[in-house]
Design goal:
- The chain contains six helices and four strands; from the N terminus they run ββββαααααα.
- It is an alpha+beta fold and about 180 residues long.
- It has one domain (about 1-155).
- Strands 1-4 form a two-stranded antiparallel ribbon. A two-stranded antiparallel ribbon has the order 2-3.
- Helix 1 packs across helix 2 and helix 1 (about 35-45) packs across helix 4 (about 115-125).
- The chain is elongated and about 90 Å long.
């Protein structure tokens, strides 16, 4: 969870031709599957990997992330670039110590990932629904771990076995100073 404090602001709203004043407000935010689901149900677009987010869409996503109750809607428009950057960094944070060794054969999926796809993965992998409130990157890491652990181990080809045995034999010869 990210806690941010938005300072009190008094600004002129060009669109409404009036002054807007907001009190200092602390927001508790959570980038989760629940937040994405709320946002996608409103905008009817995918959030993950969407490069065409407008500032209005991003502000609305921050609103969907908000756990704090009874927030003045004007507060979201009082956020400065520093606060927006802090929120974006939180969204991009891995939130886990798990890492994956990428193979040379990177597989890129062109599938659009929506909240329903992630819910499907959770059901298929029997991940409990309380995980929908986790930071999204942690949940996606858990899904990937479950998926990789459920895959059968790849067998080495005969050429790979021979190459590995040759390397082991060469290392033994060097270590024992023998010729074979």
């Amino acid at each position: 969870m990210l806690k941010i404090t938005i300072p009190a602001v008094e600004e002129w709203d060009e669109a409404r031709q009036e002054f807007i004043s907001t009190k200092e407000t602390e927001l508790c935010l959570e980038h989760s599957l629940v937040s994405i689901s709320k946002w996608e149900s409103k905008w009817h677009k995918h959030f993950i990997g969407n490069k065409d987010l407008t500032p209005e869409m991003l502000i609305d996503y921050i609103r969907c992330m908000t756990l704090t109750q009874n927030v003045n809607p004007e507060v979201y428009y009082a956020m400065n670039d520093e606060i927006i950057t802090k929120i974006k960094n939180y969204i991009d944070d891995a939130q886990t110590a798990t890492w994956f060794a990428e193979s040379n054969e990177k597989k890129y999926s062109r599938d659009i990932i929506t909240s329903e796809i992630i819910y499907y993965w959770m059901i298929a992998l029997q991940i409990p629904f309380e995980c929908q409130k986790w930071h999204l990157n942690r949940l996606l890491t858990l899904i990937r771990v479950c998926n990789e652990k459920n895959q059968p181990e790849k067998k080495m080809s005969q050429a790979e076995v021979m190459r590995r045995n040759r390397e082991i034999n060469e290392a033994r010869r060097r270590a024992l100073n023998t010729r074979g």
